[in-house]
């Protein structure tokens, strides 16, 4: 089974994807870390983030072992990721890695921005996760503070809104709900209720009570 989870920044898609993978015994890929890894390599090299040829070369030679680097979580790297991810050649370079990951048995849960629309249009279940921007900013701020990083909620909110705007309006694989994706609004759900709602969607699709 392949489950595609898309949604805007900090909507909770990674949290749901991990929990669904655990629940169904599937592998999980947070595709955001791939773009973050490209961005961090460009930042570390002092490269122009809009240098498409260079960023595509970085994308082609990425080492998945770097995906665990905690430095990828920073706001600076997230913002840079939304710049490099708009470059078509960067996206092209990363398609086959993501598709191969999804297609290996027993299947996988992938979360990102274009999983249901571009990477796995044939996914068995697609979920589009949203939450109010203010709620997302609050959660992300609490997360940063829990890691011991100072975070200003207003700055986090501005970053989230800017990234959403860039991700939605780029020409290459923009963030959007696939026609056959099921909307899950996480704004007023705690994590356990969100996970339950996501499992309910998967079960309803499998039972034919909801369209795939
Ligand atoms: N339903 C929820 N209630 C409270 N906190 C939540 C909920 N869902 C997620 N969170 C918290 O919100 C933060 C963002 O969640 P998460 O990292 O899953 O979002 P994301 O959409 O994967 O983010 P990104 O855009 O960086 O990939 C995390 O700290 C997570 O623990
Ligand atoms: N499938 C994807 C996943 C991510 N991006 C871009 O990367 C940025 C960081 O992603 P996070 O999920 O870790 O926040 C994000 O803002 C997107 O620009 C993408 O384009 N496609």
Features:
alpha/beta, 53% helix, 212 residues, Rossmann fold, binds adenosine-5'-triphosphate, binds the ligand Nc1ccn([C@@H]2O[C@H](COP(=O)(O)O)[C@@H](O)[C@H]2O)c(=O)n1, single chain
Q: If you had to describe this structure to a student in words, what would you say it looks like?
A:
It is a single chain. The protein is of the alpha/beta class. The chain has a single domain, classed as Rossmann fold (3-Layer(aba) Sandwich), CATH 3.40.50. It has helices at residues 13-24, 32-44, 52-60, 75-84, 88-103, 115-119, 133-146, 153-169, 191-206, and strands at residues 2-6, 27-30, 108-112, 125-130, 182-185. Strands 2-3-1-4-5 form a five-stranded parallel β-sheet, sandwiched between helices. Helix 3 runs parallel beside helix 5, helix 4 runs parallel beside helix 8 and helix 7 crosses helix 8 (153-169). The chain is globular and about 50 Å long. The model has no long low-confidence stretch (mean pLDDT 96). The structure holds adenosine-5'-triphosphate and ligand L45E5XJ5. Adenosine-5'-triphosphate is lined by residues 7, 9-15, 32, 139-140, 143, 186, 189-191, 194.
Largest sheet: 5 strands, parallel
Q: Estimate the global geometry from the Cα principal axes.
A: globular
Number of domains: 1
Mean of residue pLDDT values: 96
Fraction in helix: 40-55%
Give the CATH H-level superfamily: P-loop containing nucleotide triphosphate hydrolases
Q: How many DSSP E strands? A: 5
Q: Can you name the CATH architecture?
A: 3-Layer(aba) Sandwich
Which fold name fills CATH's third level, the topology?
Answer: Rossmann fold
Query: How far is the N terminus from the C terminus?
Result: 12 Å
Main location: cytoplasm
Catalytic activity: dCMP + ATP = dCDP + ADP; CMP + ATP = CDP + ADP
Domain Cytidylate kinase: 3-202
Binding site for ATP: 7-15
């Amino acid at each position: 089974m392949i489950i595609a989870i898309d949604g805007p920044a900090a909507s909770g898609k990674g949290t749901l994807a991990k929990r669904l993978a655990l629940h169904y015994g599937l592998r999980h890929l947070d595709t955001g870390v791939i773009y973050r890894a490209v961005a961090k390599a460009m930042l570390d090299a002092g490269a122009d983030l809009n240098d498409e040829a260079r960023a595509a070369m970085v994308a082609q030679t990425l080492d998945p072992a770097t995906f665990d680097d905690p430095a990828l979580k920073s706001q600076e790297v997230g913002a840079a990721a939304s710049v490099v991810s708009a470059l078509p050649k960067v996206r092209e370079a990363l398609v086959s890695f993501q598709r191969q990951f999804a297609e290996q048995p027993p299947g996988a849960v992938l979360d990102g921005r274009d999983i249901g629309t571009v990477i796995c249009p044939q996914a068995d279940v697609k979920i589009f996760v949203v939450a109010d921007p203010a709620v997302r900013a609050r959660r992300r701020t609490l997360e940063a503070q829990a890691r011991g990083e100072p975070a200003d909620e207003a700055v986090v909110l501005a970053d989230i809104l800017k990234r959403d705007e860039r991700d939605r309006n780029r020409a290459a694989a923009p963030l959007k709900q696939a026609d056959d994706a099921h909307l899950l609004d996480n704004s007023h759900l705690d994590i356990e209720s969100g996970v339950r709602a996501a499992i309910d969607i998967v079960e309803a699709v499998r039972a034919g009570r909801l369209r795939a």
